[in-house]
Amino acid sequence: MADGSLELMARAAGALELPAVVASEGTFTFGDLQAATERVGSALLDGTPDLAEARVAFLVPPGFRYAAILWGTWAAGGMAVPLATSFPAPELRYVIEDSGAAVIIAAGEFRAVLEPVARDRGLALADADELVFGDRETGRLPDLDPARRALILYTSGSTGPPKGVVWTHAAIESQVRILSEAWGWVPEDRALLVLPLHHVHGLVNVLTCALWNQAGCEILPAFDAGTALERMASGDISVFMAVPTIYRRLITAWEQLGESDRRGVTEGLAQLRLMVSGSAALPVPILDRWKEVSGHTLLERYGMTEIGMALSNPYQGKRTAGAVGRPLPTVDLRLVDDDGVPVPDGTPGEIQVRGPSVFSEYWRRPDATEDAFREGWFQTGDIAVLEDGVYRILGRQSVDIIKSGGEKVSALEVEDLLRTHPGIHDCAVVGIEDVDWGERVVAAVVATANAEPDLEDIRSFARTTLAAFKLPRQLVIVDELPRNALGKVVKPRLKEMIPPDPDA
Ligand code: MLC
Ligand code: AMP
User: Fold this and answer.
1) Spacing, Cα 399 to ligand 1 middle (Å)
2) Distance spanning both ends of the chain, measured CA to CA
3) In a 3-state reduction of DSSP, which class is residue 40?
4) Whose CA is nearest to atom 11 of ligand 1?
5) Does residue 288 lie in a domain region?
């Protein structure tokens, strides 16, 4: 590796014999990861000295190949654009085109879905196995300045199509240092990773924190409650992080066990040192029940793709149910009113954040970047209150953002597509509180004359274009949508009109 290699990789070099990744492909040490990083980096460079922030988009399931391609891209000076394994072809195409990817990599099972877009862009579709495991000579890798842009993560907003959130190496490093300090990571840790790796939660909080700390990361290719519970209780795992929907599913899986298995699992779970919940509000009944199941009071924290983690309950000390604690080290956070003026304690306000781990820009969207900041503060759009020394998240300013199972959905994006359905004259999409998903996507639809669209029909219509988590889970046919004097749909009123989900 070059002398100017990133600190993340320099730290790995001090732990070459230690296990880094345990995954479906096998068990790999930091030495294996370093060697694979050099192979991938050299292959991507293909004789050139530096990728110079070229975008490398890759569709690879969570596992060793993913880690090696991420690190190989970084070592070669590129920007990583991890693609979501759950996305249909049009959403993948959008991300590849918007990011201007110069390289596209796929694991075997994803070749078919990416071949058309690779062909249209005149790019060869690189094979993940060949890059990571191929027999290839390695060459010199470039020196890298941490100020260089490293990563683009796509996120839905309340306006327009998804935007690319750009992270520099310095921002990633700062975030990882903050979490390492706050949550007590040590080389003896072994994390169990069950989250997708195109989001900050899985990618930064779990995978990168583990590897930065010379700890191991056991990676499941996808979440499965039974397997996750079994691995967590095995005695091998010390750290686990997930969204509330996952904890709910783990509780259900535990409840389905026989009496003695339950006891064994509970004893195993008690061995972990840290369990974190985030990406959506953790309902207090889940917190309480999980405590009975595992003996752990979940550490709830608050974050966002644009800012990383900002607020956290303490690792040591009292964790408050229904609250997200205090600002993490180096995070500057305030609550403001509609005029941007800080509010006193006890008064709700919008969360604004600044600090070294805040993102630098929306990819190729200078206007959106400018709109997102006010006097240097990033405006999250989340409303919170500071009470008894801790922050509570109260909701969001925009009714057009829905959080389902930890995934963000833009109501407007779903509406735009549904309006192209021949049986739909008009529609509005809202998020309704849901025990399983936190919020579920509900479509209120005014049908065209003589048409009778049903939920299955609408879901299969939308499924070829939108990711499955964006599809409506409930359909309500209405004669008209509630509108204000300006003709805008009044979503809070519409939410009150939605009957309980008959399938719930
Ligand atoms: C999957 N489905 C969802 C869904 N995930 N529907 C609504 N909301 C979701 N989040 C769909 C599936 O496509 C499938 O549709 C059906 O629901 C049932 O699938 P499943 O097998 O039960 O679901 P599963 O694939 O297991 O996924 C559930 C999940 C997943 C909870 C494991 O959603 C997940 O990993 N969520 C975490 C996302 C995450 O990491 N977010 C962090 C964002 S970063 P069908 O129609 O095919 O049957 C962030 C910042 C921060 O928020 O603070 O961390
Ligand atoms: P994303 O844009 O996908 O990164 O999601 C970030 C959003 O998730 C935040 O803006 C919040 O609305 C929400 N969020 C994250 N953590 C929490 C939490 N602990 N409680 C409530 N909402 C949360």
Assistant:
1) 20
2) 54
3) helix
4) 469
5) no
With CA atoms as reference, report the closest residue to 446 among 402, 409, 479, 485.
Answer: 479
Closest ligand 2 atom number to CA of residue 381: 10
- Lining ligand 2 with CB less than 6 A are 155, 278-281, 300, 302-305, 324, 380, 382, 393, 396, 403, 408
- Return mean pLDDT, the chain: 96
Among 123, 144, 165, residue at a domain's last position: 144
Q: Which of 251, 279, 471 to mutate to test the pocket of ligand 1 (most atoms within 8 A of CB)?
A: 279
239-242/407-410 β-pairing: unpaired
Does the global pTM surpass 0.70?
yes
How far is C-alpha 308 from the chain's CA centre?
10
For 438, the domain range is 401-497
Spatial separation of the C-alpha atoms in residues 20 and 438, rounded to whole Å: 33
Instruction: Read off the pLDDT of residues 22-73 as tens digits, 9 standing for 90 and up.
Output: 999 999 999 999 999 999 999 999 999 999 999 999 999 999 999 999 999 9
Task: Pick from 194, 203, 240, 245 the residue to mutate for probing ligand 1's pocket: most ligand atoms within 8 Å of its CB.
Answer: 245
Alpha carbon of 301 to ligand 2 centroid (Å) = 9
DSSP code per residue over 235-283 = SS--EEEE-HHHHHHHHHHHHTS-HHHHHHHHHHHTT-SEEEE-SS---
**Amino acid identity of 138?**
T
* 93 found inside a domain: yes
CATH number at residue 99: 3.40.50.980
Out of 77, 109, 144, a domain closes at: 144
Nearest CA, atom 12, ligand 2: 382
User: What is the whole-number distance in angstroms between the Cα of residue 468 and the centre of ligand 2?
Assistant: 20
CATH number at residue 466: 3.30.300.30
Of the candidates 397, 300, 287, the one whose C-alpha atom is nearest the C-alpha of residue 340 is 397
Count the alpha carbons within 13 Å of 346 in the hemisphere toward its beta carbon: 1
Q: How are beta strands 274-277 and 239-242 bridged, if at all?
A: parallel
Paired with 155 in beta bridges are 163
CB 225 within 8 A of CB 248: no
Say if 57 falls within a structural domain.
yes
| pLDDT at residue number 22 | 98
Instruction: Give yes or no for a contact between 381 and 401, defined as CB atoms under 8 angstroms apart.
Output: yes
Q: For the chain, how many structural domains are there in total?
A: 2
Question: Going along 398-487, which residue ranges are E strands?
Answer: 401-404, 407-410, 424-434, 438-447, 474-477
The answer to whether residue 271 is domain-embedded is no
- Condensed to tens digits (0 to 9), the pLDDT of residues 418-433 reads 999 999 999 999 999 9
Cβ contact 294:240 at 8 Å: no
Q: Which residue ranges have their beta carbon within 6 Å of ligand 1?
A: 195-196, 199-202, 223, 243, 245-246, 278-279, 303-305, 404-407, 437, 468-469
Q: What is the Å distance from ligand 1's center to 66 Cα? A: 20
Whether 208 and 172 have beta carbons less than 8 Å apart is answered as yes
Point out the residues of the chain with pLDDT beneath 50: 2-3
